[in-house]
Amino acid sequence: MKYLVIAEKPSVARSISKVIGAYKHEDGYLEGGDCVVSWCLGHLAEYAAPEYYDERYKSWRFDDLPILPEEWKLLVSEDKKAHFNILRKLLRSKDFDYVVNACDAGREGEAIFRRVYGLAGSKLPVKRLWISSMEDTAIQQGFDSLKDGTEYDNLFAASECRAKADWLIGMNASRAYTLVYHRRMSVGRVQTPTLAMVADRDRQIAHHVEKPFWKVVVPMGGWTLTGERLDDRTDAEALKSIVDAPDFTFQVFSVQRRTVHERPPRLYDLTGLQKDMSRLHGLTAARTLAALQSLYEKRLATYPRTDSKYLTHDDLDTLRDLAKGPGRVDGFVRMEDLPSAPRFDLTVDDTKVSGHTAILPTRNVDRTVLDGLSGDERLTLVRVVRRMWEATADDYVHDTVQVIANLNPHWCESHPDEGCRLSEGECRFTSRSDQPVSLGWKAIEPAKADRGDDADEEEASSARNVIPVNLSTGVSLRPVSESSVSEGRTKPPKPFTEATLLAAMEHASRYVEDKDLKAALDDDESHSGGIGTPATRADVIEKLVHAGYMERKGKQLHSTEAGRTLVDVVSPRLRDVSLTADMERSLGDVERGGAHTDAVYEEFRGYARAIPADAAANV
Hints:
Elements (H helix, E strand, L loop, with lengths): L2 E5 L2 H11 L1 E5 L2 E4 L2 E5 L5 E3 L26 E3 L4 H12 L5 E5 L4 H14 L5 E3 L7 H9 L2 E2 L4 H29 L9 H16 L5 E8 L4 E4 L5 H11 L6 E13 L7 H12 L3 H13 L18 H7 L52 H17 L4 E12 L1 H6 L1 H4 L9 E10 L18 H8 L11 E2 L6 E6 L6 E2 H9 L8 H7 L15 H10 L3 E4 L2 E4 L1 H9 L2 H4 L1 H15 L5 H13 L1 H7 L2
Parallel strand pairs: 1-4, 1-7, 7-8
Antiparallel strand pairs: 2-3, 3-4, 5-6, 8-9, 10-11, 10-16, 11-14, 12-13, 12-15, 13-14, 17-19, 18-19
Helix pairs in contact: 2-3, 3-5, 5-20, 5-21, 5-22, 6-18, 8-9, 8-15, 9-11, 16-20
């Protein structure tokens, strides 16, 4: 039997060809004894612009809205038509018994192949290569267990429904608001709610009014007791005069000691990796995805666009192999920081893997590959390897002590005037100590301990405090020296960074007030509760920056004046995170076969149908 294989990119086609024996180079494909391998050049076909449905749509007129195609048209871009003709000829050839869809194993890859297959008018039976690694062994195993293409019909249906929703809402809303407000506006199903989150945060920061507060800080000899926030400096000075009295003592109200075991972090999904690469190295989400995609194609990392942080039991042998020998140690981590007995079972949860597993390095990785990588690729690969070790390492163990002390009641009785100046709550003092016992997984990435601007003052103080081991409830304590009054100011919310915006997109249910929808979005069995997908969130951020609606200032992301204006004028429906997250839920239901595509698609058409009236009503 002779078969045709279609990959997503030429580099992937070459890797597959080497495994299945297609070595002969022809125009647009590689040929072997019983197989031919070609490629799609990424997104070969896209949904046509409005003017391809009707000439009158070349001009933007409000009366023409909404534009709701009855029959959708796919177009091949001019620069890719020559290669599409090669693919069409191959897909229509009677020389093949079947075609293997070897595009990336995900929603986008499925859409890329199916569109080309449909445009070519092919009747060949379809089999699916579904793999998470470009290693030779993984490719061979994939071909040994090809899936029936129909098993991925729901995945394709969800992909097309998503693309049509983006077209319907983006195209109609962009035209409607541009025409109503006489200025170019780009509105998107996911990008506008994302922009709204950033604009709202920026406004909270801009409108924040600093309020001063004061705390009394009392040295106790190797540790300090700190009073509650006081809004009046006079109260703080009064409290200071009390604790500085020659005969003053505290009485310890409570001492809580705990030995805390912090479990290792989970393996990376794409969003988790993007957040850490932003926080640790300042990489944008798009740069991290590009680096990881390149590592995947170079057979150094597993499939990038995954939303799972776990492996299945079937993957345990692979993980154990990766942990053997010096390959993923030298050049990546210090031998002395590695766990003596890696806990591989912590990475396994079959119920949390619906498609691809978490991101891992491959067996091809060792220190020799680092020299041939770009800077972004090297940083990304090192982080992926380190997370593999972190996820299987020992717990981070630390001892915490929490102390609450009050003005000694006996002192207050003997000094009734001073003791009654402030309420009991205002006279409470606290101290916290946090001392590491065993670094465990935190030893793998020393830089993680340096949290820079994200470090909290109280956490830093906790690390410095050394509270006596014999301190107990009820004892009286005398300050060792004069207290001080520290002044602080209330702070606004922190600006979004790439990492925190990705987290907000991933967990959009935090921004939802409807309890039923919030509960549904938080249901990990069915979906992530986010807006966008791991594969698209980076692109959404980049589009907003390139459109001039957001800008980067160092690691921070801020809305621009144009961005805030857009958020102000669009209807609440279009900037509502909850609506977009609910749409993501519906698309997820389609993908899992829990909702009918036509019903969800009609719901989205209904949203688009209302856009022109909403735009006109908000003027």
